[in-house]
Design brief:
about 25% helix, single chain, 5-stranded parallel sheet
Length: about 300
């Protein structure tokens, strides 16, 4: 089976769905290939309070359902598949899905996102969305006046810990080594903040919590040098050990930074191959918000439309 679209969008999170909405309104009849996690990371997010336009907290899965329905209504063709290989060497670009379906495209918008790296504990997965988070900007507000912990030792961890002091009474920064890996400025700020305590040579062995209501109550910690264990009472755990952009498909075909994020032209979503655009967390290692991803999806669709209008 094979099909052709003027614009193919990879990914169905806020960036992909917004790109689809704008491309459909431009009469480009886009095809959106949903990928391995239809709806993106918002589908595993419960309360969303920071997406503009909603006075009350909304549910992440509901928001993505609304975006998908809007894109469908405007004429987007949604395909439930995951792309296994891409050829960007010549236009039209060729994409082969896990299903075996072959799709060609005159323009490609990559909105495959990035996944937070997790500790890999079963108890961590159990409490994701119920006190365990990988985004302080998204969820810090819910921990006003509470005690929280941040795991990690790089700039992201230090910045998350500092941000959380705006809400939490106490923030414990947990790092498995004897020194932080963040830059000296962030380290000095974290060490000087009276709300932050840093635990070195320590790792999280287990997340402890209650079932009704489902919530985090403590962490089981292990000293990486002595092997001794103790518990720490907390209301929330923020995991800040990095993100992995979903860009393996494009290695060797598109310019990326050292972490695998797709490089784009300044003030643009245009990638290093003409006719390829990248939007959302797949190119954004700084903000990683639903609203910024949606904005980039809009940009990508408008740039794809202009590209196609000028293509011969």
């Amino acid at each position: 089976m094979s099909s052709h679209s003027k614009v193919v969008i990879l990914g169905s999170g806020p960036a992909g769905c917004t790109a689809a909405i704008y491309a459909a309104r431009a009469m480009l009849q886009p095809t959106l290939i949903a990928g391995i996690q239809p709806g993106g990371q918002l589908t595993i997010t419960t309360d969303v309070e920071n997406y503009p336009g909603f006075a009350e907290a909304i549910q992440g899965p509901w928001l993505m359902q609304q975006m998908e329905e809007q894109a469908r209504r405007l004429g987007t063709n949604f395909v439930q598949d995951t792309v296994a290989s891409v050829d960007l060497a010549k236009r039209p670009f060729t994409l082969i899905g896990d299903s075996g379906e072959r799709t060609t495209a005159d323009a490609l918008i990559i909105a495959t996102g990035a996944q937070a790296k997790w500790l890999g504990l079963p108890s961590e997965a159990k409490f994701q969305g119920f006190g365990v988070s990988a985004c302080a900007t998204c969820d810090g507000f819910f921990f006003r006046g509470k005690n929280v912990a941040v795991v990690g030792g790089g700039n992201s961890a230090a910045e998350e810990a500092l941000f959380l002091t705006n809400f939490a009474d106490k923030v414990t920064l947990i790092h498995r080594r004897d020194t932080l890996r963040c830059d000296k400025t962030n380290q000095a700020r974290a060490e000087a903040n009276p709300k932050i305590e840093i635990l070195y040579d320590t790792e999280v062995a287990e997340v402890l919590g209650s079932e009704d209501p489902k919530s985090v109550t403590a962490l089981a910690l292990r000293n990486t040098v002595t092997g001794t264990s103790h518990s720490l009472a907390v209301d929330g755990l923020f995991v800040a050990i990095g993100h992995s952009p979903a860009t393996a498909l494009f290695k060797g075909q598109l310019d990326m930074d050292e972490s695998g994020y797709i490089k784009t032209a300044p003030d643009s979503t245009h990638a290093s191959v003409a006719g390829v655009f990248a939007a959302g967390d797949v190119k954004d290692r700084v903000f990683r918000q639903a609203v910024t991803a949606a904005g980039m999806g809009c940009m990508a669709a408008l740039e794809a439309e202009r590209f196609l209008a000028g293509a011969h």
